[in-house]
Amino acid sequence: LWHPPDSTRIPDTPEGDLIRYGRELVAHTAIFLGPRGKVMSISNGMNCQNCHLKAGKKLYGNNYAGVAATYPKFRARSGSIETIEKRVNDCIERSLNGKKLPENSTEMQAFVAYIKWVGSEVKKGDYPGSAGIPDLPFLNRAADPIRGKKIYRIHCTRCHGTNGEGLREGNSLEWKYPPLNNENSYNNGAGLFRLSRFAGYVKANMPYGATYENPTLTDEEAWDIAAYINSLPRPRKEFPTDWPDISKKPFDHPSGPYSDTFSEQQHKYGPFAPIVESRKKK
């Protein structure tokens, strides 16, 4: 398994200062780039760390392990070769429901320097098994938001609130536990709005204290909680240039059009196996 580099080994050089600044931007994005950001105001107040756990260094916690080793790369969502800078701005626009960061800014340079440092020990072209988010086996039914709400009330309210409203830090600028709905949360273009991504993330990391090796939830519970959270109201933003080849849309992309005849409801909540099998036949 990949293990993250030790932050105490960041060199005491100008490049090291940039890496440290990037780490601060990931951990405390809202302080620098949030609604009351001291550098600029381009995001909704969440921190990158709210989704990329432990500043992008937690195993299976949506970490940055494989980014430097695999970018630039072609991504079907844009239909183009993407840089790390493009990927950072995608997250800001979608997960932070914000506006693009200028690519020539010190902040963008710091984000990229830190992300590259996190993955600096990964061989070019490799993608470590503990990177990103794990895949869960499909359910033989659709994921159920009603069942998910009941499970959410048992496991999630102590951090994220009864209705997913989140809990702010004492400085009132950041979220200790991020909001899961409404204007302060991720929008409909975010990666976690895909159910398979959110379910895998929940299973490996939630509730607080859970890990990939020692999960709290079953696969079924994780799918249903993800369905409940992604059924909640959230910001909507249009991304008209996404998926120029709609046949490349993921099986769980939650909005059409699609190149198959399965409904938008099934693409969002499943069951997903029939969609995947149909694509294999084609």
Report on this model:
With 282 residues, the chain is mainly alpha-helical. Helix content is 37%, strand content 4%. The longest helix has 14 residues, at 14-27. It is globular. The chain starts with 13 loop residues before the first helix and ends with a helix.
Write the layout of secondary structure elements.
Blueprint: H1 14-27, H2 29-33, H3 53-56, H4 67-70, E1 73-75, E2 80-82, H5 84-94, H6 106-118, H7 145-155, H8 157-160, E3 167-168, E4 175-177, H9 195-205, H10 219-229, H11 264-269, H12 273-281
Antiparallel strand pairs: 1-2, 3-4
Major beta sheet summary: 2 strands, antiparallel
Shape: globular
**Residue share in helix:** 25-40%
Fraction in beta strands: under 5%
**Number of DSSP helices?**
12
Low-confidence stretches: none
Average pLDDT number? 97
User: Which structural class do the helices and strands define?
Assistant: mainly alpha
By DSSP, the count of extended strands is: 4
Going across the major beta sheet, what is the strand order? 1-2
Which series of helices and strands comes N to C?
A: HHHHEEHHHHEEHHHH
Radius of gyration: 18 Å
CA distance, first residue to last residue: 35 Å
Q: What's the gist of this structure?
A:
This protein is mainly α and 282 residues long. It has helices at residues 14-27, 29-33, 53-56, 67-70, 84-94, 106-118, 145-155, 157-160, 195-205, 219-229, 264-269, 273-281, and strands at residues 73-75, 80-82, 167-168, 175-177.
